Amino acid sequence: MKIIIAGAGEVGTFLTKMLSDGNHDIVVIDTNEEKLRMIESNFDVLTVKGSASSLKVLKDAQISKTDIFIAITELEEMNLTASILAKHLGAKLTVSRVNNHEYIEAESQQYFHTLGIDHLIYPEILGAREVVSLLRQSGNAKIYDFSEGKLSLVVLKLSDGASIVGKTLKQATAENPRYDYRAVAITRGGKTIIPTGDDIFLSGDMAYIISTPEGMSNLLNYTGKEQFQVNNIMILGGSRIGKKTAQELEKYINIKMLEIDSEKCESLAEELTKTLILNTNGRDIDVMIEEGIVKMDAFVAVTGNSETNILSCIYAQKLGVKKTIAEIENMDYIDLAENMGIHTIINKKRIAASRIFSFAMNYQKVDVQIEFLNGTDAEILDFIVHEGSKITTRRLKNLDFPEGAIIGGIIRGSKGFIATGNMRIEPDDHVIMFAKPQVVDLAASFFI
Q: Could you tell me which residues are beta bridge partners of residue 429?
């Protein structure tokens, strides 16, 4: 496919990385020559210097031959204008980043669709949905649900006390006779391992495990993770992510929000009727203690400062908070924060890039939803199988499936199953796969 990405910021750079691993012809447009040089030095793509809303620049980038045009600059007006022009100049599919909540409402999206914009992306809303999903889960493991929990991917860091530590995958499987969960990947020392039967689980490993609902409780106990209900939350920062999170949860959970800006507090108090808004410096550990951090089940740091979010979560954990979530927008800090033990990290730019990547895959007639996972150079993919797909022609063990990809589970009708070699995929199944970026396109070819 020919793909044009307008915007060489962090979202554009990360998206370029994801897409450049496939067999795509990619052009990146930006006004910043230094950013373009950095992209050219790291990825095999073409760059064009200039404004994406310029007709000449779009024509120079061969917009008439473009399959997907993605506008993700920091300027909303630029993105919308560029996407409309791109569509009228021949781009087959257009995606635009926006910062206005009104635009993503169903009626507004239909209006933009008539103008030529196929998909709108609002990173802050995607980030808030991620936080809400995490807070609705019990325990301090990160869980991705598929088809309303018929299967789940559990991401957890193994501690010394976990029963699985020191055992091979083969031994761990033997101790799970019902076969209701399965490890699909391990990250260790910054490297992702697709485990074989002889790979040993070590303390400090980040394990990625597919589980059925029946296996979840046993899995968490086996890996030494505590289960608990989240009833009291403290949110540091009245950002758009913080506000949206509180709006979604304040009817069911006690929420206390700390915000240093007095004018923002007044605005938040008008919109959040059941959330306690406190105009105070929540970055101060003494203030956190005074406002009852030790009584909280979860702490969410979503200020505009990554360093503040990291440090406040570390303080919260030391004070006994069982679940911490930090928004980290500086991508250089993500691995550092993971190693420092913060329970969960969100990055709205990566979430947005993953959503856009899904649009690119779907354009190729592959029905898939994609999640990029922090802490690993891999994605989790949820494919819907169509009649005649290559994946349906043989049992899983007889398919020449690419190294670097593994099928963890299958959802058929109302039930999820852990994948085994003797299984045969059927049309309308959901197939949950864990794959490294460089093999995603090859693995996706089995579903065409």
A: none
Written as six digits, the tokens of 23 are 């067999």
Question: What is the residue type of 223?
Answer: T
For the beta carbon of residue 411, count every other beta carbon within 10 angstroms: 21
Q: What digits encode the pLDDT tens for the residues 139-159?
A: 666 788 888 889 988 888 887
What CA–CA distance (Å, rounded) separates 272 from 249? 10
Render pLDDT for 37-81 as a digit per residue (tens, 0 to 9). 999 999 999 999 999 999 999 999 999 999 999 999 999 999 999
3-state secondary structure the chain: CEEEEECCCHHHHHHHHHHHCCCCEEEEEECCHHHHHHHHHHCCCEEEECCCCCHHHHHHCCHHHCCEEEECCCCHHHHHHHHHHHHHCCCCEEEEECCCHHHHCHHHHHHHHHHCCCEEECHHHHHHHHHHHHHCCCCCCEEEEECCCCEEEEEEECCCCCCCCCCEHHHHHHCCCCCCEEEEEEEECCEEECCCCCCECCCCCEEEEEECHHHHHHHHHHCCCCCCCCCEEEEECCCHHHHHHHHHHCCCCEEEEEECCHHHHHHHHHHCCCCEEEECCCCCHHHHHHCCHHHCCEEEECCCCHHHHHHHHHHHHHCCCCEEEEECCCHHHHHHHHHCCCCEEECHHHHHHHHHHHHHHHHCCCCEEEEECCCCCCEEEEEECCCCCHHHCCEHHHCCCCCCEEEEEEEECCEEEECCCCCECCCCCEEEEEECHHHHHHHHHHHC
**Total-model pTM:** 0.80
pLDDT single digits (tens) 191-247? 888 888 889 999 888 888 899 988 887 777 767 676 788 999 999 999 999 999 999
Label residue 310 exposed, middle or buried (CB < 10 Å: 0-12, 13-18, 19+). buried
Residue that is written with structure tokens 């569509």 in the block? 87
